[in-house]
Specification:
Shape: flat
Strand order of the largest sheet: 1-2
Order of helices and strands: EEHHHH
Strand content: 5-15%
Number of strands: 2
Distance between the termini: 25 Å
Radius of gyration: 20 Å
């Protein structure tokens, strides 16, 4: 089983890791881009709507369920303004596909004792 953690390079590096039950894509650079997009949207001086909504949500006294819809709407609106794409140029898409194919092949499922369960 390969454990090559070398990221697939590009504007957003993608690391591929294998666990006993899955292939995991680590896109920390994408996460950082999304966080930057959210901060930029909240601090946009031309449109303070999201900032105002965030403060309204924080200042509102409510039961836990009452604020859920407001939170979900804010998450959706911030999500619309955040990055969600990972561009892979030239051979990078093939490199990712080959790595995923290599790591996603059948493998034995570890017993609970092997996985650290007592």
């Amino acid at each position: 089983m390969s454990d090559d953690r070398t990221p697939i390079t590009g504007p957003i590096p993608v690391s591929v890791e294998i666990t006993p039950t899955a292939v995991v894509l680590d896109m920390a650079a994408l996460r950082d881009m999304v966080v930057a997009d959210v901060i930029e949207a909240l601090l946009d001086p031309a449109d303070t709507t999201l900032w105002d909504r965030l403060h309204e949500l924080a200042d509102t006294e409510r039961a836990p369920q009452e604020g859920r819809l407001l939170t979900e709407e804010l998450v959706a609106d911030l999500g619309e303004r955040s990055s969600s794409r990972v561009p892979l140029y030239g051979p990078r898409a093939r490199e990712l596909a080959e790595r995923l194919l290599l790591l996603s092949g059948p493998r034995p499922v570890p017993s609970q004792r092997e996985a650290g369960a007592a």
